[in-house]
Amino acid sequence: MEWNVNTVDVHPHEEGHDDVIYNVHWSVSKVDGEYSGHSYGTQALDTSDLSDFTAFADVTADMVKGWVIDAMGEEEVANLEANLDAQIENQKNPTSITKTLES
Hints:
By secondary structure, this protein is α+β, with helices and mostly antiparallel strands. The chain has helices at about 60-70, 75-90; strands at about 1-15, 15-30, 35-45.
């Protein structure tokens, strides 16, 4: 599962810190050969304890991905991956297809 967490919302100033990330716009995708699944959303982050604050300039995508996964929880991440797998399976073995009649 590939994550994109490069877009974030920040509080310009909070508790003596600048650019405090409080919300992450995420997308995930999974590819299996010619088939793929995709999902996106936002995840709020708890900013009530900034004792381990990392300056925005030092934040990496891997760090943000970890924060998002921690905030979502194991079960939600597993459900997300299951949804991507279901999208791929439906492409491989569709239960419905759309066709156009000849005029």
